[in-house]
Amino acid sequence: MDRDTFRPGPLARVELTPENELVFVRELRHPPEKVWTALTDPDQLAGWAPFLTDRDLGRTGDAVLSTVDGDQSYPAPARVLRADRPHLLEYTWGDDRLRWELTANGDGTTLTLRHRVGGPDLAAMTAAGWHLCLDVAARLLDGDPVGPIRGAEAKDFGWAELRDAYAERLDRD
Prior knowledge:
This protein is an alpha+beta fold. The protein has one domain (12-172): 2-Layer Sandwich (Alpha-D-Glucose-1,6-Bisphosphate, Chain A, domain 4). The chain is built from four helices and eight strands, in the order E-E-H-H-E-E-E-E-E-E-H-H. It has helices at residues 32-40, 42-45, 123-141, 159-172, and strands at 13-16, 21-28, 51-53, 61-69, 72-84, 88-93, 96-105, 108-116. The radius of gyration is 15 Å and the shape is globular. Belongs to the AHA1 family.
């Protein structure tokens, strides 16, 4: 599939906890070890994540994650708090805290992202962004990369519709 025909897949399982933690669950067709590499290796992250990293995220310690929007890059401090290969990756990114849990599910992986957001009004926007990023990551893992979809460009790939759909889903919970 080429980038011009890329469209987001079905909505993920999602909920927002009272602590403003967005819980986003996706099923991937690849084993945890392969998913782990996509979450930690700078070259793989560059192919799907909303940021670029200055180092491998598979070990604890300080890092810099730079949000990318077109030709602009916005570095933010990060700290990898836990890196239990290939099951748990937890780090801060600016004021946010992300926890990636990988659970083997047959030949695939259940990926659970817990992303503490600044408030409930940010949950649907955050879910829409991760939805697109993880759809792109799934393509990368499948060997059919479409390239990263970041920043304002996400609007060309259904971000607003995803945001509205996640807002509706989160309001029902």
